[in-house]
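[Target chain]
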Amino acid sequence: MTDLAIAGRPIGPDHPPFVIAEMSANHNGDLGRAMALLEAAANAGADAVKLQTLKPDAITIDCDRPDFVIEGGPWGGRKLYDLYAEAQTPWDWHPRLFERGKELGLIVFSSPFDKAAVDFLAGLDAPAFKIASFEMADPGLVAHAARQGKPVIVSTGMAGLGDIAATVETVRRAGNDQLALLHCISSYPAPTEDSNLATIPHMAQAFGVPVGLSDHTQGTAVAVAAVALGACIVEKHFTLRRADGGLDSHFSLEPEELARLVSDCRAVWTARGRISYALADCEQGSKAFRRSLYVVEDLHPGETITEDKVRSIRPGYGLEPKFLPEILGRKARKTVPRGTAFDWSMIE
């Protein structure tokens, strides 16, 4: 697998999961709130905060025909144009958010939704580009982002294996091998039972790149489980308080939940470890409490050893119990008091 690094932070199976706190529209149009979200993400221990860099005219048109009106779900009845106008992060905020992120030790980057957004972010020296699931089907946008020479993270919601392969090829043909993929279910919120986390190790094997999860389920359990299955990246929407409202608040984590997500994901990564059947260092002290062979009645020279005389009991300082059949019926060589760990020197 080819690892990658974003702003010097290595990402891959041998490194702790890279946790991205997705601000999305949870700034609710308030720069002060956006700054507070950065601080909350830093305090929670997230590695990065991701923005969305778009203008509604770049991804749709202002039209109220049925094709341009959302049916059902949390945004049902809203025009696409109005939704994106509300969701956008003003471009003049970006330099201040990037700078504040650096002060807080956060990596700040963004999802561009058109080529102009790519160019704008490149001018800010954005450390990576994130391609959203809905945009991965646009090879022109993907290639333009990839040609900037920065790491590219691609969400794969609604994409089949062939679609993902085509996008991976687009990035590589652009001369960029700094690629990660995110398994994603593009529903808001996404039902836990549709998560199909078993896809994560398969995707990693299929494409040889770090794979993570862009998680739209409610709560933290699915994201933590993804790390257990090998996810190198976890992306999760967050807000200051769901009660404050906003387009994404209903499936976003609050700061204390984000902190628990970060802690649990890193603990699970540590616990996942490596394939090993060796005795762990922490088990050394417990080894003494395994069963072994002990003399349980005094033995005398020439006496036949029976199960009344030697048994498998705790602690573990004697011969292993598997040797009991070889000992039974043999003669004792010397006097051995009750409570002595049995060894080969005690038989003729």
Summary: The chain has a mean pLDDT of 97.
